[in-house]
């Protein structure tokens, strides 16, 4: 009898049953870890290397990219201005309209009498006209206390205006004067708003005849290159330089001959609006001119940088192993230990500052303490050993859970209990208000409601909320929304995954969704697996 399980369960039969469930449930994982540790324990590969002489350039756009979103300002004509419908439930058969009798609004000292200027009957409802600067919700009139329903048009920013079957979103609205996204050519006409047909007149619209040079049409918007913020009437203007540069790839840059740069020749990183581009080998032509394929008129300042980085190129051995992998792949595997060919102590391993797995190139430091100072190995041959420390830690964790669990493991152990005898606690989730959603904002997208349901359940659960699904079903998007909501509750989040790529995927979404004003992320792990995400790397944020 295991005393740890007996202490947790308090009953001999229950503790035996739970222990058997845990052992049976975790056996496949124990076997997997044991086989992996055996396979990688003594695995070791070697290769030769050669030093790379690298060129590095800093390129910065001379102009900014501005998005010009055309607007049209219209005035809706309100035929029911100042009209109100009387609630029939507040009236009886003796009620008769008397325009000579004023209505009373407000109470006590703030009450006042206002004249009713007109009346009518529509669809068996009394309707009256009261000209007053504020919306009235109830009146006292002819001895009756009556609830009023305003018939005047009201517009909010989330409404959509339809003209000639084309939908226009609203930028701003001031009473019935609204700015629509897009250009309307009609001086006047009819539009649909909230299933009502209303007349409108155009006050003014954006004129593209006043656009400057270096202009590009982007669907319904315009893109302008300028050294300063342009000024256009009836338009929404946004500097999108940083956003456009985030989408850069090496192949989107062109050299002086109009040919795209090659991924095999160059690597680049982005810091604000500055792009650093580094040659991947010594055979590339010096970069003297650079243009962007999507913005051929955008000019760049190019400055050659002095780099002290000492990259090495790994050389493929003539005799490869029979695993189907390149021997060099072992140098770029998760948690690989890289040593001089004559070293065996893992504590003497190199620290990988950066790596390029496609080109089989490494930037090494002597240790984590000197990780900013790249070095060349002393010997012509280096070797890679598999790091099984993480596998051993997982093995220890499973052993602790199967042999000596404690009260802190209750949540995990409950997953192995028979649900017919101890069903999982049902947790009621509170629905978030529509304006509280940050990522899952559009319920028209397939799966959005299911994603919201998971986030709400995860926020309410005291222990585990499990989301399962194949790639592309929105798991990362749901996790990102959950992170935002937890941060808004003032909580700290530890995000873990079995691969660096999974963590990087979430961090990239934080960048793409521009969430850095809400989410302060720290990435813990080897920096060479954080290419493009160095600004989140814990090591780089230590002052």
Structural write-up:
With 543 residues, this protein is of the alpha+beta class. The chain folds into five domains: 1-41 and 388-418, no CATH class; 44-52 and 312-386, no CATH class; 79-150, no CATH class; 245-305, no CATH class; 419-541, 3-Layer(aba) Sandwich (Rossmann fold), CATH 3.40.50. It is built from nine helices and 29 strands. It has helices at residues 3-9, 12-40, 241-246, 389-403, 410-414, 448-460, 475-488, 500-512, 538-541; strands spanning 44-51, 56-61, 64-77, 83-86, 103-105, 112-114, 118-122, 125-129, 138-141, 144-150, 160-163, 166-174, 177-181, 188-193, 196-205, 215-218, 221-226, 235-239, 253-254, 266-271, 274-279, 291-292, 300-305, 311-315, 337-340, 351-356, 361-365, 374-375, 381-385. Strands 1, 24, 25, 26, 27, 28 and 29 form a seven-stranded antiparallel β-sheet that branches. Strands 3-13-12-11-14-15 form a six-stranded antiparallel barrel. Strands 7-8-4-10-9 form a five-stranded antiparallel β-sheet, with no helix packed on it. Helix 1 packs across helix 2, helix 6 packs across helix 7 and helix 7 crosses helix 8 (500-512). The longest helix has 29 residues, at 12-40. The mean pLDDT is 87.
